[in-house]
Amino acid sequence: MPNVDQQRKLREAAAYKRDEEHRAERRLIEQKERDRAKKELERRRYDEMAKAKQAEKRADEMRIEDEKRERMMKELEQKKYKDDQDQLFQQAQMHRYNSQPTHTPQSSPFQQQQPQQPQQPAQQQQPFQQPYKHPQSEEEQQ
Q1: Cα–Cα separations (whole angstroms), residue 37 to 20, 44, 46
Q2: Which residues are CB-contacts of 110 (< 8 A; sequence separation ≥ 6)?
Q3: Please, what is the end-to-end C-alpha distance for the chain in angstroms?
Q4: Where are any strands of DSSP class E within 27-110?
Q5: Is 61 domain-assigned?
Q6: Rounded Cα gap, residues 38 and 34, in angstroms
Q7: Tens digit of pLDDT for each residue in 19-66?
Q8: Residue 112: helix, strand or coil by DSSP?
Q9: What total of structural domains would you count in the chain?
Q10: Residue 10 domain-assigned?
């Protein structure tokens, strides 16, 4: 029987050794799986951070573009307003220039202007003209 006990002990020792090797392999596989999962999680976090950074960058770029667009619109509006004001000012100057009588060297714009006499119609200003008579018709009359 001692032989049987020894064989059993050897078999148990071999089984125990196989179990230990199997457990060691399993631990190694589990550790590799944990490392892979950890790297995957880290990669996902990095990707999410990169996406968030890109989204933030895009938002900043859009904000900057909107600010530029707003600034340009304000500048255009101000320029248009200024151009309109300049045009109105020029029109007013032209109106003032055209409506003021020309000043002679003796008169000054600060002197009081004498009221002008109303002009008479053009027919009354021209002297009366007799109708044109043909010379032959005059000879016939004589």
Answers
A1: 25, 10, 14
A2: none
A3: 189
A4: none
A5: yes
A6: 6
A7: 999 999 999 999 999 999 999 999 999 999 999 999 999 999 999 999
A8: coil
A9: 1
A10: yes
Instruction: Identify the CA nearest to 109 among candidates 95, 97, 91, 92.
Output: 97
Can you tell me the distance from the alpha carbon of 103 to that of 110, in angstroms, rounded to the nearest whole number? 10
pTM score: 0.41
> What's the chain's length in residues?
142
Let me know if residue 119 belongs to a domain.
Answer: no
Q: Which amino acid is at 50?
A: A
Exposure b/e, 62-79, CB count within 10 A at least 16 = b: eeeeeeeeeeeeeeeeee
Instruction: Extract the tokens encoding 4.
Output: 């049987």
Distance of CA 11 to the CA centre of its chain: 84
Q: Which long-range contacts (CB under 8 A, 24 or more apart) does 9-13 make?
A: none
- Give the range of the structural domain holding residue 46, as residue numbers without chain letter: 1-69
Which tokens sit at 134?
């043909």
Pair of tokens at residue 48: 């999410």
Whether the CB-CB separation of 103 and 91 falls below 8 Å is answered with: no
